């Protein structure tokens, strides 16, 4: 009897789907690539042909230049590649993110990419798909990682801002997904003042707006008068928090929006005064609840803390294996 999922083979550089002669999220250029989302540890330029959601292709165009071999696949559309039926369903990670559903000879494999289960105003919510094999991330695959309510983290940020009207709050947020979500979450908490952004965020914020995501009044921080920034929120890439660019801001309260802010040492290493635990990845409960909901026959675990999730699966008689793919850490959660 053939091993479950024997037609899919993990390599360090990605997952090879043999009967489709295609790769899922390959880390180097391939003739055929299926891409879950636009973060650079999953989406690379240079493929001869690439299948992804329209939003992910737009992100790849923005980051890597035109993708001449791009094929846009709408959520729920089923296409045939080689001998495999392929579809893309929402993953809830960032704009355009998708789980890739692969069906061949009566078996269904879901490669989830990166995902989360809690609401996000900037992208479609995760859609559970029952399957035989579920390929899951484990970025926050330890019981210590239980993310708090996002609204409460936004309220903490706004409270600090109100308490310090002569200063600004400088929030480090990754350029794709996190920055736009942070802005949209603040709007959802009733904050409609201008939000100032670092120039490195402009192109992707513009792209989100073009894709129908309302970010409200956002303005460039560079060139703004120092007094204009007092009492306001400034969003920048994490690397800008402590560089020369930030020194011109009015006594910034340094914040960071990341799931890693659960780890106090990480906050201290970045000199973060206001750690905000806001993640675009599933926490421990979301990971385990998703596996329990889907009830796959096997779980394949990648990019993260595999051991704890492996142990959790085995104690529940769920067969599990580590894939050990390279380069599968989000650039900055």
Automatic annotation (TrEMBL):
Stretch list, region Disordered: 28-47
Bias type Basic and acidic residues, positions: 38-47
EC number: 3.1.-.-
Nuclease keyword on record: yes
Record key words, sorted: Exonuclease, Hydrolase, Ligase, Nuclease
Residues of the signal peptide: none
GO MF, one example: exonuclease activity
Record has Ion transport as a keyword: no
Name of the protein this chain belongs to: Ligase-associated DNA damage response exonuclease
Originating species: Sphingomonas parva
Lineage: Bacteria, Pseudomonadati, Pseudomonadota, Alphaproteobacteria, Sphingomonadales
């Amino acid at each position: 009897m053939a091993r479950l999922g024997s037609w899919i083979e993990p390599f360090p550089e990605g997952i090879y789907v043999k009967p489709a002669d295609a790769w899922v999220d390959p880390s180097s250029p391939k003739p055929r690539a299926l891409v879950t989302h636009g973060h650079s540890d999953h989406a690379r330029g240079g493929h001869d042909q690439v299948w992804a959601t329209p939003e992910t292709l737009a992100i790849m165009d923005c980051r890597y230049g035109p993708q001449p071999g791009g094929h846009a696949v709408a959520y729920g559309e089923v296409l045939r590649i080689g001998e495999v039926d392929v579809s893309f369903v929402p993953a809830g990670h960032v704009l355009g993110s998708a789980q890739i559903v692969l069906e061949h000879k009566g078996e269904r494999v879901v490669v989830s990419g990166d995902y989360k289960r809690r609401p996000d105003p900037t992208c479609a919510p995760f859609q559970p798909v029952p399957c035989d094999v579920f390929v899951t991330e484990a970025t926050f695959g330890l019981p210590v990682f239980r993310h708090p309510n996002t609204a409460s983290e936004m309220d903490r940020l706004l409270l600090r801002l109100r308490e310090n009207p002569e200063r600004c709050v400088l929030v480090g947020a990754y350029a794709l997904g996190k920055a736009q979500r942070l802005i949209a979450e603040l709007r959802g908490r009733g904050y409609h003042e201008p939000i100032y952004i670092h120039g490195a965020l402009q192109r992707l914020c513009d792209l989100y707006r073009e894709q129908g995501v309302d970010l409200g009044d956002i303005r460039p921080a560079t060139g703004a008068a120092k007094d204009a920034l007092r009492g306001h929120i400034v969003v920048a890439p994490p690397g800008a928090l402590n560089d020369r660019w930030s020194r011109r801001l009015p006594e910034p309260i340094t914040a960071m929006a990341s799931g890693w802010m659960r780890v106090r040492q990480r906050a201290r290493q970045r000199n973060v005064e206001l750690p905000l635990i806001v993640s675009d990845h599933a926490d421990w409960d979301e990971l385990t609840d998703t596996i329990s909901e889907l009830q796959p026959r096997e779980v394949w675990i990648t990019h993260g803390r595999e051991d704890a999730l492996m142990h959790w699966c085995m104690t529940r008689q769920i067969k599990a294996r580590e894939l050990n793919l390279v380069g599968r850490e989000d650039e900055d959660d």
